[in-house]
Amino acid sequence: MEYKFDSKNFEEEVLKSDVPVLVDFYADWCGPCKMMAPVVAKFAEEFDGKVKVGKINVDDNGEIAQKYGVMSIPNFKFFKNGEVVDNIVGAVNPEMLREKVTSLLG
């Protein structure tokens, strides 16, 4: 299941999550974000129940993007126990992203 995060549910769904979380900071106008969207959706299915995978629109949730230092998108932040433990900026090889997601489980 792919989650939609926003300022109303970010604390509960991401920071207080009892499983690791991959947050895709994106915007609708961003070409590389659109390119990565199917990869993120696939990971949401693949890791369902083990890692929470979701997206947050930086245009609609600028305060959260600013808080986490998101300057370029797509920006993938990996949260564990409410803290950012890793980060990838830009469109990347799906295997690189999978390795990072898998490392959250270790």
TrEMBL record:
It holds the Pfam family Thioredoxin. The active site is at C30, C33. PROSITE patterns: THIOREDOXIN_1, THIOREDOXIN_2. The record marks G31, P32 as: Contributes to redox potential value. One of its GO terms (molecular function) is protein-disulfide reductase activity. Gene3D superfamilies: Glutaredoxin. GO terms for cellular component: cytoplasm. InterPro entries: Thioredoxin (IPR005746), Thioredoxin-like_sf (IPR036249), Thioredoxin_CS (IPR017937), Thioredoxin_domain (IPR013766). Disulfide bonds join C30-C33. The record marks D24 as: Deprotonates C-terminal active site Cys. Keywords: Disulfide bond, Electron transport, Redox-active center, Transport. The keyword Transport applies. Residues 1-106 form the Thioredoxin domain. Belongs to the thioredoxin family. This is Thioredoxin. It comes from [Clostridium] aminophilum.
